[in-house]
Amino acid sequence: RNYKLNSMSLSLISGSIIICPELRLRQSPSFSRISSSRPLFLSSHSKQSFIHQFRPIKVTSISAMETTAETITDGVPNAAMKLLFVEMGVGYDQHGQDVTSAAMRACKNAISSNSIPAFRRGSIPGVSFGEMKLQIKLGVPRSLHQQLDLDKVKSIFPYGKILNVEVVDGGLICSSGVLVEEMGDKNEDCYVVNVAVYVGY
């Protein structure tokens, strides 16, 4: 009896597989695929000896290999509040290399062009001004996470109970093009931080 695998294509999520040296391992964004451009014939008599020529490897799903962003507190947004809208902003610290300043400016940028009258006017039935809640997600360069002063960042918000703050890999470190010692520069690095502010009750 013969086993025919014509233009063999095997997709898998995880586990152990056996690959013939003639086959090519290719990866796509969502899965690994093993393919051969020509048919393979395996007879029941030669099947066992042919398999011994294979080289076993371990394949892990692509999603499992992706870097998980560092989270300081619970993920944002989550079901701890009913979401009404989202404010987004960006902040920079061109000189002085202070990532907290960049994060504070990002938050200020996010809330500065918005007005939220619904809570004070009682436009939401059964919801008072004191029930306004916030969740904050900051995109900060990974190497700067530990330098971030979250208490200072939270001080930017004049009202609303901040439920949690999540810090993920994001933002940017780039060159400002010039080192200005009188402004506290240690190098030419400019820090950029992104933020999303989730507002609800």
Descriptive overview:
It is elongated, with a radius of gyration of 27 Å. It has 5 helices and 12 strands. The strands form 4 sheets. Strands 8, 9, 10, 11 and 12 form a 5-stranded mixed β-sheet that branches. Strands 2-5-4 form a 3-stranded antiparallel β-sheet, with no helix packed on it. A two-stranded antiparallel ribbon has the order 1-6. With about 200 residues, it is of the alpha+beta class. It has a domain at about 85-200: 2-Layer Sandwich (60s Ribosomal Protein L30, Chain: A). GO terms for molecular function: GTP binding. Keywords: GTP-binding, Nucleotide-binding. InterPro entries: CHP02058, Tubulin/FtsZ-like_C. It comes from Noccaea caerulescens (Alpine penny-cress).
Secondary-structure content class: alpha+beta
CATH class of the domain at 83-200 reads Alpha Beta
Encode the helix/strand succession as letters: EEEEEEHEHEHHEHEEE
Supply the number of helical segments.
5
Instruction: Write the CATH homologous superfamily of the domain at 83-200.
Output: Tubulin/FtsZ, C-terminal domain
Mean pLDDT: 75
The strand count comes to: 12
Straight-line distance between termini: 68 Å
Helicity level, as a percent range?
Answer: 10-25%
Report Rg: 27 Å
Fold-level CATH name of the domain at 83-200? 60s Ribosomal Protein L30, Chain: A
Strand content: 35-45%
What does the main sheet amount to?
5 strands, mixed
CATH architecture of the domain at 83-200: 2-Layer Sandwich
How would you describe the shape? elongated
Low-pLDDT windows of residues:
1-42, 49-73
